[in-house]
Structure of FlgN protein:
Amino acid sequence: MIDLLVRKKGLMERIINITVEQSKLLTPEKAEDLLATIERKQEYINEISLIDAEVAPLEKEVLYLNGIPVGDGSNKGAKVMLEEVENLRKQMVVILEDTRKLENENLSKISLEHQKLKDEIALLHTKRGTLKAYQGYALQSDGYFIDKKK
């Protein structure tokens, strides 16, 4: 179980590194690179999901060991394992919180870029309307019938 949790922690560290990398790629010019990093990040998330599925049955065993008294010294290995598992979980919680903070910062940056694009599009529509108002229509507004038989 500890091996799985160490692997999960390593994947979480890779995810936080990718999140830092994503913050550098939040410009429209680097959209291709951003999509590639998002795909890599999703692969790591999928791996973590698989690890969680493997760890879930083992957690019941750990909880059982947690209920066994350690006073006589016969269960010292279980106590050490429980302490190590708890230590790994605390480290993963810290990594997860840092990742969430970075994700929120990235989201706010993307929201600002999105708002800028919306404003630019609205400005273009306004300019087009202004041009039509002052120039009028270049084409004739009504159709005419021309009799060529004469």
The chain is about 80% helix and 0% strand. The mean pLDDT is 81.
